[in-house]
Amino acid sequence: MPITSVEKDLDALTMTVIADFDATRERLWEAYSDPRQIERFWGPVEWPATFTRHDVFVGGRSAYFMTGPEGEHSAGFWEFLAVDEGKFFEVRDGFAGADGEENTAMPSMRMTFSFEDTSSGSRLVTITHFGSLEQLEQLLDMGMEEGMTSAMGQIDRVLADLESFAAGRGTEPQILSDTQVRISRIIRGTVEQVWQAHHDPALLQQWMLGPDGWTMPVCEVATEVGGVYRYEWELENESVDGSPRQFGFEGELLESDRPHRAVTTERPIGSAGLDTTNELTLTPHDGSTLLNLVITFPNSELLDTVLDTGMVGGMESGYARLDRMLA
User: Fold this and answer.
1) Where are the domains of the chain?
2) What average pLDDT does the segment 176-195 reach?
3) Could you tell me the pLDDT band of residue 242, with boundaries at 50, 70 and 90?
4) Which CATH class is domain 172-326?
5) What are 1-5's contacts with CB under 8 Å, separation 24+?
6) Is 216 helix (H, G, I), strand (E, B) or coil?
7) 66-76 pLDDT, tens per residue?
8) pTM of the entire predicted model
9) Helix 191-199 to helix 311-326 angle, to the nearest 10 degrees?
10) Domain 3-165 is of which CATH architecture?
């Protein structure tokens, strides 16, 4: 059990949890900043978490839900107030409804996470700041301390699992819900480089090509929120299996927070009712960049159909090309 102490200060309205680990501070930070890893321990053992968003930068937001033994859901969010990469972050932590929006009937808290080096590895100091004594007592009565103890008891296993999150594993899909899939890939380049590679037409045309043999003659990038983009690909030679030699996508830029997050809509050119929402998040990861793309489909049937087309394999061809280009 990594937790070494839990202290409740009723005068200061805080609860301080200290936990020590054999892993390095950098490895511990990585576990908290990577949605694939934090969701393996953030919820209590009986209530595992799924993170549908995790933006570890000032102004960023995380969204997650925990699934209970009977399939019930409990949702929450973080708003990132401060981030010192590798050392510290501060969030407003709150409850959310089924729609992901804040449940204002429940209290929110301010939480700080401090990552420190120790002679044997690392230490995490988590301080929860409550708005009132009533709020502190309410949340403790709801089992907050027991929940944190159960959750943090799972971290050692995640920290020891280096292979699952290492660079070189390629593009990996993870189904988040009936209509959402998260695509993850570590790219050997800085966050700024990977962002630029997604927004510079000359760079996009070098790597976003899918399997060999395709070119990208049309690459119109949305430069401002509300702007539209259009990408078209063409097969250099005649198709041998009768499949189309040309296809494309278009959409609108909904959100942009350089160099960490961009949200767009996407639809096949000339098709209606097949729109998806694509949320791109870039996070520093051990000298490289962790790319996460959460795609929300209008229905489960379309999600299954698109995955069956070999989409992930095509994306890996492009990301591998980008990886080589930036390396």
Assistant:
1) 3-165, 172-326
2) 96
3) low
4) alpha beta
5) 1/149, 1/153, 2/152, 2/153, 2/155, 2/156, 3/149, 3/152, 3/153
6) strand
7) 999 999 999 99
8) 0.91
9) 120
10) 2-Layer Sandwich (3.30)
